[in-house]
Design a protein that fits this description.
The complex is a heterodimer.
Chain A (H helix, E strand, L loop, with lengths): L2 H27 L10 E5 L3 E3 L3 E8 L6 E2 L13 E3 L4 E5 L9 E8 L7 E3 L1 E6 L13 E4 L7 E9 L7 E9 L2 E8 L2 E7 L2
Antiparallel strand pairs in A: 1-9, 2-8, 3-7, 4-9, 5-9, 6-7, 10-14, 11-12, 12-13, 13-14
Chain B lengths: L2 H22 L10 E2 L13 E4 L3 E3 L4 E7 L6 E10 L2 E8 L3 E8 L5 E10 L10 E7 L18
The chains are: A mainly beta, B mainly beta.
Chain lengths: 198, 157
């Protein structure tokens, strides 16, 4: 066999093995919205119409009393596993580096179908009461308390506002309590804190 | 390093080797006559929406232009946006204020192309909850596909 032919066969086999491993990797990490996310609810976004063979970037935001979007990059689930969509014509690829706000989910959405009228897509996010940054409790034993714990505050409160106005503006702060830090959120007059269970 | 991470890295390396020539040749893969239709998304779920359109902008190869579209005082709040553009034009939202959107439009191929931007304006302030907003729009190279007849730029919806 000619060397060049052997080289092509080796490349082909390597590609096949790589593709199989990659698909296996994807299947191992695929999850539904809210899988592995505490105090989570799904939030369905409005449908959007796409033309054929076109792609766009899109920013979605968690809101209301579950304002935090977890991109799961810090868990075994990995990126791209806390949202879903309803139309198989599309691919939706998460852009974690563009998720600059704790509520934001950023994605590149592509319609691969060739239909004259185009296609609609509806994206659903997993949204949490708990910020992705914490707390980290033994056995994931966290709890939500629906009032200010009034423990000493660490640092200063931070305001988070998505583009536009109400209702995606809220304030966060951290308190140091006897059982560890409490991550508190103030949203439209409602206050809740996530902390480790006693 | 875990087995999963290792396999992902190996697969990624293979993809990089295989697809690198295709990516470098991407400029020639665009169908520079195909137009992505204006779909009317600028007024989707926008209360009392008024669509405001920019004039069509012509871009030569490798050219980038900045386009600002403002809402009128009668409907001063900007919500969503849409385009009618050639497949090889990349339109990106680069800034938003309460009453205007600023875009960059760039030409990704070796032929001139056009873009026209539509923004949805409302008397009510923008609410992002439940709707989000588009941050960019472009076409997938389709020179080797039969996409059928597409509309001419500037005809609107």
């Amino acid at each position: 066999m000619k060397p060049i032919m052997r080289s092509w066969i080796r490349t082909g086999v390597a590609l096949l093995v790589g593709a199989v491993c990659f698909i296996d990797h994807i299947e191992n990490t695929t999850a539904a919205p809210c899988d592995g996310v505490p105090f989570c609810e799904t939030q369905q976004q409005a449908p959007v119409h796409y033309g054929s063979w076109a792609t766009s970037g899109w920013a979605y935001y968690c809101s209301g009393d579950h304002p935090y979007y977890w991109n799961n990059g810090q868990s075994t689930l990995g990126f791209g596993n806390n949202f879903t969509w309803d139309n198989s014509c599309f691919s939706v690829t998460e852009n974690p580096f563009a998720e600059s706000e704790p509520s934001k989910m950023d994605a590149t959405i592509t319609n691969w179908c060739i239909h004259r009228g185009g296609e609609d897509i509806t994206v659903t996010l997993g949204c949490s009461k708990q910020p992705q940054a914490g707390p980290s409790c033994p056995n994931n034993n966290t709890q939500v308390v629906f009032h200010d714990l009034n423990c000493p505050m660490q640092g200063s409160p931070q305001n988070h506002c998505a583009p536009g106005v109400f209702p995606v503006c809220y304030q966060t702060w951290t308190e140091q309590c006897s059982n560890g830090p409490a991550y508190c959120t103030g949203d439209l007059g409602a206050i809740w804190c996530v902390t480790c269970s006693q | 390093m875990s087995r999963q991470r290792m396999t992902a890295i190996i697969a990624g390396a293979f993809c990089a080797v295989v697809f690198a020539p295709a990516i470098s040749a991407e400029r020639s893969l665009y169908n520079t006559t195909r137009v992505l239709e204006h779909l009317g998304n600028e007024c989707g779920r926008v209360p009392r929406c008024l669509a405001v359109q920019s004039p069509p902008v012509i871009l030569n190869p490798d050219q980038v232009k900045v386009i600002v579209v403002e809402c009128p005082s009668s409907q001063p709040f900007v919500w969503q946006w849409d385009t009618q553009q050639h497949e090889h034009i990349h339109v990106k939202l680069v800034a938003r204020t309460s009453g205007a959107l600023t875009f960059s439009a760039s030409n990704l191929a070796d032929a001139p192309g056009s873009s026209q931007i539509f923004v949805g304006c409302s008397p009510e302030p923008f609410k992002v909850a439940g709707v989000g907003f588009m941050t960019s729009r472009t076409g997938i190279p389709s020179k080797n596909l039969n996409m059928g007849k597409e509309p001419k730029l500037g005809s609107g919806k």
